[in-house]
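question for whoever is on the cluster today: can someone run the full assembly for these? two chains, 776 residues total. i dont have access anymore since they changed the login thing
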Amino acid sequence: IICVPARLVPQVMQDCAIKKVKGVSIISAGFGEADSKGRKLQEEFLRIAKKAGIRILGPNCLGILYPPQHLNASFAPFLPFSGKVTFISQSGALLDSVIDWSVKDNYGFSAMISYGNKSDLDAPDFIAWAAKDPYTKVITLYVEGFSDGRYFLEMAKKVTPIKPIVALKAGRTATGSRAVSSHTGSLAGSYQIYKGVFKQSGVIMADTLTQMFDMARALAYQPLAKGNRLAIVTNGGGSGVMCADYCEELAIELPVLPRELIEKLDKSGKMHPAWSRGNPLDLVGDAGPERYEVALEAVMGSEVYDGAIVIQAVQTSTQPLRNAGILVEVQEKYKKPIIGAFMGGVISEASIKYLQEHGIPNYDDVDRAARAMWVLMECGRHYRRRKL
Amino acid sequence: IICVPARLVPQVMQDCAIKKVKGVSIISAGFGEADSKGRKLQEEFLRIAKKAGIRILGPNCLGILYPPQHLNASFAPFLPFSGKVTFISQSGALLDSVIDWSVKDNYGFSAMISYGNKSDLDAPDFIAWAAKDPYTKVITLYVEGFSDGRYFLEMAKKVTPIKPIVALKAGRTATGSRAVSSHTGSLAGSYQIYKGVFKQSGVIMADTLTQMFDMARALAYQPLAKGNRLAIVTNGGGSGVMCADYCEELAIELPVLPRELIEKLDKSGKMHPAWSRGNPLDLVGDAGPERYEVALEAVMGSEVYDGAIVIQAVQTSTQPLRNAGILVEVQEKYKKPIIGAFMGGVISEASIKYLQEHGIPNYDDVDRAARAMWVLMECGRHYRRRKL
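^ ran it for u. tokens below:
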């Protein structure tokens, strides 16, 4: 790890060559991104490194964090929690903010890599590494521009059948891509081309940072869906309707409840007389845990559904913690994906924590829950296609 | 406030008529939404009320909450904080969840109204009330279907030039609107028609619950923008680029920095040599409060910009609380809107609280900040048009 002033870096690189160091991470800034003097310094240390076979991360980067091994080889002030998501970021500032956010939001990472000027190693190299990392289940990527689009395409094609990649591309518009040029000196390239590359290689595109980590959380903790037929179980009619809207917009199917399933639930003696007998399966506002249990058991056990979104609006009879327990149990029993949409707040806080700790991703807003389920279906499709 | 079993409600209504009660709120359920027996009961108490000139909220609703006067005339377990946003909701369950969330998120409301079966009073009546309420600055509305679209259109047209209305319509898709029918017995209607009605009356449409309350927060606490020319000030290049992308997608202009402004900042002695000299105005990662101050002063004082989004990625030299103070001061000085995009987390938490308490809305993700600024510009346009 090199963090001496830029002008001293070539000398340190020379020392590394003598000591037969295999890889270095250069935190120092003031190279290719700064001025012509910096560019020359970068060329100089690169020449030395190439000759000695040294691979380089950076310069002008935050470094590497590897929470499963408690390694913080970066200038970030603290480590995030250990998790199953690797985050590869062209922007160091963004990585810093994400760490700060993740600790507050209880979001875990298996690795975080800020690659700065990518003078040698680039995003595809880190993707290749993450594909082999035993702690990583999902790879997330913030990228402004690629040096070598073809290399990325080849690598991503190899990796996505093994581990999903979710990418956020900045500089998608004319204004944004002008800002990229002024910011990093690299070209953002046409977003249409990126879209094509991502699609061809099975990379999932996110529109926002929140969306990227939302989808990664689902992929990290839930199984992929075997089809796109969803059941929505809810104790709030309105939230159920909104969820159905978002699902239709994402081409998720909501098959009607089969007649035998309606009869079974009617006979259970647990349902409210006014329950919806449809999908969304509305348990009615005063639903206690028994109703959640019998309904969720029914849809998850049915051949008609590939997964479920369970909505909880906190109401007088709601028992958030017991409901959370039911989601965890039923998911373990049927091995199909369940996504929680327990609306967050003071009362529901403990139940949401319970869900997340037991591998059920939960989202405040039903549109985020629908998007999380969509990615499990989309990646499921991708894997099945690759298998054929 | 009536909360006796449904079958007793007509009798209570009779008693109210004798006592010359002017208005009642019926919390009880089991009427029009339940079965034919319930429908008859509803017709019965309506007949009595009409004859006696009694206006009715509900039945089958959560009731009314009025935090500025500490009034909780609902079956929600607690009051939200007092604020400037009225929330009118067709769904009681949603209202319940929103209260729970708002307390955790420090989001204040001037009033919350759940109107259930709308046997008499409907959304437009509550909008008319909120337009006159001294505590309300913004009206938010969750709606599944209108009984009388023309009445809504007329009322909204009158109110939007005085107070902005932000609406979330559920049942926008075929699946969603089928769910509305099964849920409330009312028709959702074509979303295209709703869109037309909203647009014609100057109502802002939200896609999600989060988006609705995000926009309402901006409208409640910041002045409207006088044009759509925005400056982005940031200490993170990547976040600046993403913000520029979202702005372009929302047709927000990002004028380049005027030459005299660049010279002024260059001469200030406060800027990093590598600052962007563009818009986004990138202060570079090690920016302290002095840089934020001189840059924000410059753009807010310039005739070229109608407002600013200020992004803060927490980095080693970042001083979140001092930065927050600068936003508040500069906003008060120039009276143009400022939106914060301080990425939330453990380190930035106190500064975000400071911003919110001093009237600067803050959003975790730059896309939400861009959307909040957009609504200040959009409503500004609407008001100017009405004034002409």
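summary bc i know u wont read the tokens: Chain A touches chain B through 76 residues (CB under 8 Å). Residues 87 and 140 of chain A are 5 Å apart (CA to CA).
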